[in-house]
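Worked example

This section walks through a single chain of length 71. The input is the sequence exactly as stored; nothing has been trimmed or padded.
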Amino acid sequence: DSEYPDFDKHKEVHENFRLKIASFIDRHNIGDETVQHELLDYLKGWLTHHIQGDDAKYVSHINDRGYGDEN
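Given that input, the structure is written out below as tokens.
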């Protein structure tokens, strides 16, 4: 257990991401021609805001507690 203070919220954000991607896939499968641009914009935002922000905080939390050590 990492004891990350925002773990439940962080997990919920990842679940919402998964659902959003599933929605993009569904739209693509029915021939929605606008989905590619929306998906690209969404993924750019996820990369810059979530991965480089929220996920980086989580990794820092894990590393500060020594959970990320390979020893």
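What to look for: The two ends are 18 Å apart (CA to CA).
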